[in-house]
Amino acid sequence: MWLAIAGLGINWFGDSLDGTVARVRHQQRPRYGFYVDHLIDCLGASFVFGGLALSGYMSPLIAMSLLVAYLLLSIEVYLATYCLTVCRLSFWGLGPTELRLLLIAGTLALFSDPTVQLVGHRHRLFDVGGIVAIMCIGVTFIISSVRNVRVLYQAERISAVTTEEVP
Q: What value does the mean pLDDT take over residues 74-87?
């Protein structure tokens, strides 16, 4: 578990450092950087959720469902970035750094008790956290998708076609 925490710290450091170094050196490559950064984010998430699925601290079904939810929201963000030229990485005040901190806090909590009591039953801490995360990501996906569809619809309204114009 300490290795997982160290891995999250290294991931955060590398994710934060690459863009900063490019800006300081005045060697920015926005499209390349965007592509590589988000490709690595998706690979990293696959490894994190795959590791959770294999760890015994989260059921494989919940881990893979969480990965699917994460990737759906990622796709929505990437499509919005392309179509609306607005890249939004944080929702509801939570971004990648806060999510890493939540994972670290959860991992530290495993040392004392890997389960939580809910409705008279004991459940794995990461299963409960995973289900909450899936629901939050799902709501965020729906709200963001509807908002972006509405903006794109308004931006590309189709004018009324009269019957005279139709061949």
A: 91
Quick check: 60 and 129 in contact, CB under 8 A? no
- Compute and round to an integer the Cα radius of gyration of the chain: 20
Written as one letter, the residue type at 106 is: G
CATH number of 2-153: 1.20.120
User: What does the pLDDT read at residue 10?
Assistant: 85
Buried b (16+ CB within 10 A) or exposed e, 79-111: ebeeeeeeeeeebeeeebeebbeebbebbeebe
Per-residue model confidence as pLDDT tens digits over 91-105: 877 787 888 888 999
Across 128-159, b (16+ Cβ under 10 Å) vs e yields bbbeebbeebeebbeebbeebeeeeeeeeeee
C-alpha triplet 17, 18, 23: angle, nearest 5°: 95
N-to-C CA span, the chain: 69
* pLDDT tens-digit readout, 123-132: 999 999 999 9
**CA–CA separation, 73 and 156 (whole Å):** 23
Burial class (CB in 10 A: 0-12, 13-18, 19+), 74: middle
- Average of pLDDT values for 67-83? 94
The answer to whether 91 and 144 are in contact (CB under 8 A) is yes
pTM assigned to the model: 0.83
